[in-house]
Design brief:
The complex is a heterodimer of chains A (about 180) and B (about 80).
Chain A: H1 8-16, H2 20-41, H3 46-63, H4 73-90, H5 103-124, H6 128-139, H7 144-151, H8 158-176
Helix pairs in contact in A: 1-2, 2-3, 2-4, 2-5, 3-4, 6-8
Chain B: H1 6-14, H2 21-28, H3 30-46, H4 48-56, H5 58-64, H6 71-82
Helix pairs in contact in B: 3-4, 3-6, 4-5
The chains are: A mainly alpha (about 180), B mainly alpha (about 80).
Chain lengths: ~180, ~80
């Protein structure tokens, strides 16, 4: 998982100006989100999900000029992905029938994915080590031994490192969003 | 956002696994693919024999210029040829 820097709006502006590195970063930053909407939100099979994934990024690339507010890139991307998934499900030869997806379940899943994306954003500002350990363990489902070998760390220390990194992530998130104070009586 | 206990954080991190590498690479190569498509179309406009070859086998034409023929890329090339 690569660290990403800068706001979505700045990244979108660089993409629009033809900056190839910015396009690579934009795909890297949002590939998991688009993938998750396809596979978890709409439960597309691998083949359908791949087609939708490529279609979404093709549309982003060709329609970036139509985005009126660069700050609104995320909701625009989410909407574009939803629409492309729905088109796919309604088209012939689909792998998953549309009827199987309950609108309530879909909204809940998409809302959770938005929250997950915010967590991954916060992780991007952590040290390489913490970011890597958390991503490998939770998102890539790697064992302590695999993580230890990949990061050249003793496997026996991975569990405690995960715990410390989660504490740091928690502090980062709470710093960004202070908990609501109880109302004064 | 809900409380940030370890279980919740782990669940939220896990909800965004990486997309397959090949998919990400293909999406990152889109700008180069668009330039490749432009090149194919321009050449086909000027060269009837080449155009015939491309229309008969779009996938090979793309592979010749180093572009992976994903369905959206193929569809775009088809669309471009319809309007040439």
């Amino acid at each position: 998982m690569a660290a990403t820097t800068g706001s979505d709006a700045a990244l979108v502006a660089r993409c629009r100006a033809g900056d190839a590195a910015a396009w690579n970063e934009l795909v890297e930053r949002f590939s998991r989100y688009v993938y998750a909407i396809c596979t978890q939100g709409f439960r597309l099979g691998e083949h359908d999900a791949e087609d939708v994934f490529q279609d979404v990024f093709t549309r982003v690339y060709t329609h970036l000029d139509r985005l009126r507010d660069d700050e609104a890139f995320r909701p625009w991307l989410a909407q574009l992905t939803r629409r492309t998934c729905i088109d796919r499900l309604r088209s012939g030869g689909r792998e998953t029938p549309m009827e199987e997806i309950e609108p309530g379940d879909l909204d809940e899943t998409l809302s959770q994915l938005d929250e997950s994306l915010a967590i991954h954003d916060a992780m991007a500002s952590m040290t390489d080590n913490c970011r890597d350990i958390l991503d490998r363990f939770f998102a890539q489902d790697e064992s302590y031994r695999t993580i230890g070998e990949a990061l050249d760390l003793p496997a026996g220390t991975i569990a405690s490192r995960i715990s410390r990194c989660l504490d740091k992530l928690k502090a980062l998130l709470e710093e960004a969003t202070p908990p609501a104070r109880p109302e004064a009586r | 956002m809900s409380a940030y206990d370890h279980d919740t954080l782990g669940r939220l991190i896990a909800a965004l696994p990486p997309a397959p590498d090949g998919w990400v690479r293909a999406a990152q190569e889109l700008p180069a693919a668009r330039r490749g498509i432009d090149g194919i179309v321009n050449r086909a406009v000027a060269d009837a024999a080449y155009r015939e070859r491309v229309v008969a086998d779009l996938e090979s034409a793309l592979a010749e210029v180093g572009i992976e023929p994903t369905p959206p890329i193929l569809e775009e090339l088809r669309e471009r040829f319809r309007s040439v």
